[in-house]
Amino acid sequence: MKSLFYFSPHISVSKADMLHAMPHIEEILANVDELEQTIHEAQNMLSPYCVYAVYKDVNLFNDYIQVGNIILHCGNKIVHLLQNSSQAAIAVCTVGQEITYHYQYCCQHRCRQNNGRVEK
Question: What is the structure's pLDDT at 115?
Answer without folding.
Answer: 47
